[in-house]
Amino acid sequence: MASSLLVCICVLGLSSVAMAASPRKPIDVPFQRNYVPTWANDHIKYINGGNEITLSLDKYTGTGFQSKGSYLFGHFSMQIKMVPGDSAGTVTAFYLSSQNSEHDEIDFEFLGNRTGQPYILQTNVFTGGKGNREQRIYLWFDPTKAYHSYSVLWNMYQIVFFVDDVPIRVFKNSKDLGVRFPFNQPMKIYSSLWNADDWATRGGLEKTNWANAPFIATYKGFHIDGCEASVEAKFCATQGKRWWDQREFQDLDGVQYRRLNWVRQKYTIYNYCTDRARIATMPPECKRDRDV
């Protein structure tokens, strides 16, 4: 193991045998350390000295927050309890995004449900302003009952989405296939709670029941471990020196691939890579071995 990785792990108080997924115990910091409200500040409430917050949605507005800094590569995670009960029409989002017309974006979107129906987790990746790379899964737990961790590992080789350290999606760097990959546009981290009943639940058939408002999502574990950069940066000066650049983080290991396949086989309900009705020709990045 590279000495730089050992140093980073020691600083963070992590185990040196941590899996290639991400640090086992990311450092939790108060919300105000790294984040600021984006809009509707009065719909954000602070709990436990700012170590937890709630976002609320009513028929007038939702709310959201964003990181103070912009980051080029790293590991980013959030612990969230989703809106409980009848949450149809609502979307709770946690994502990274750059700020321009040809933006890059890495999305978690949690689509609300009617009581008794499962939440749907939709992920997407935009590169150079092009998205339409949706994948959808059911979760193997009720995300409204307790906190669960949702994380992104982003380096020059891959973007990995994790739920409680289980990889649910990998987007490989397929530049050699002519596919753009996020590598030179720093991104901010965002989260929001908003109404999307025109599409979110059963394609918009289920509308938001405002009698159940306000809808509340709860957050803690505001973890950022990335290379902070200005929005004009074309590269990160520390690239190649951080733990996420090391060899063991450039691909999933065997255990992680088995977990990923478990998610695909048991919980995946939509994958743009196999939607020939919508996308006639398989996108080049989908042809990567083990990535479909």
Poorly predicted spans: 1-22
Q: How far apart, in Å, are the first and last alpha carbons?
A: 30 Å
Strand order of the largest sheet: 1-4-13-6-7-8-9-15
Structural class: mainly beta
- Mean pLDDT across all residues, rounded? 88
How would you describe what is shown here?
The protein has a single domain (26-287), classed as Jelly Rolls, CATH 2.60.120. It has 292 residues and is mainly β. It has helices at 3-12, 31-34, 254-267; strands at residues 35-39, 44-47, 52-57, 63-67, 70-81, 90-97, 105-111, 120-126, 135-138, 148-154, 158-163, 166-172, 188-195, 215-229, 268-271. It contains three helices and 15 strands. Catalyzes xyloglucan endohydrolysis (XEH) and/or endotransglycosylation (XET). Cleaves and religates xyloglucan polymers, an essential constituent of the primary cell wall, and thereby participates in cell wall construction of growing tissues. Glycans are attached at residue 113. It is an enzyme of class 2 (transferase).
Chain-wise SSE layout:
Layout lengths: L2 H10 L18 H4 E5 L4 E4 L4 E6 L5 E5 L2 E12 L8 E8 L7 E7 L8 E7 L8 E4 L9 E7 L3 E6 L2 E7 L15 E8 L19 E15 L24 H14 E4 L21
Antiparallel strand pairs: 1-4, 2-3, 3-14, 4-13, 5-10, 5-14, 6-7, 6-13, 7-8, 8-9, 9-15, 10-11, 11-12
Features:
3 helices, 15 strands, disordered N terminus, 10% helix, mainly beta, globular, single chain, 8-stranded antiparallel β-sheet, 292 residues, 7-stranded antiparallel β-sheet, Jelly Rolls
What's this entry about, in short?
Catalyzes xyloglucan endohydrolysis (XEH) and/or endotransglycosylation (XET). Cleaves and religates xyloglucan polymers, an essential constituent of the primary cell wall, and thereby participates in cell wall construction of growing tissues. The protein is mainly β and 292 residues long.
